[in-house]
Design a protein that fits this description.
elongated, 115 residues, mainly alpha, 4 helices
């Protein structure tokens, strides 16, 4: 079944229109998400100064990109850390028996005495 959705009117897109309460709430949620990011990923945008739909859209876009970049970098760091652990684990050598165990009175010394 095909559902037809009418195109929105051209008046629906007005970047200069003041931001609605719903859009302001979305900006607040994005600001909370941004505050959880490390400092190097945060924007320098003062959210209280956002007035129009275009301002809000730009801020939401920048924070979304920052969140994606932070997650990509974190994933890359996890892979590097896991790979280093694999290399270290592969490089470990089996432990040798200590010298004290081979010099003591053991079965190996008994064979030597029989000769």
């Amino acid at each position: 079944m095909l559902i037809k959705i009418p195109r929105p009117p051209k008046s629906a897109h007005d970047p200069t229109r003041p931001a609605t309460s719903l859009l302001k709430a979305q900006v607040d949620h994005m600001h909370e998400a941004e505050r959880q990011l490390p400092l190097k990923y945060r924007t320098d945008i003062y959210v209280k100064a956002l007035r129009t739909e275009a301002d809000a859209a730009e801020y939401i876009r920048e924070v979304t990109e920052a969140v994606h970049k932070a997650h990509e970098n974190a994933e890359r760091m996890r892979r590097v850390r896991e790979r280093k652990l694999e290399i270290v684990a592969a490089a470990e050598r089996p432990r040798r028996k200590s010298a004290a165990k081979t010099k003591g009175k053991g079965k190996g010394n008994a064979k030597l005495k029989r000769k």
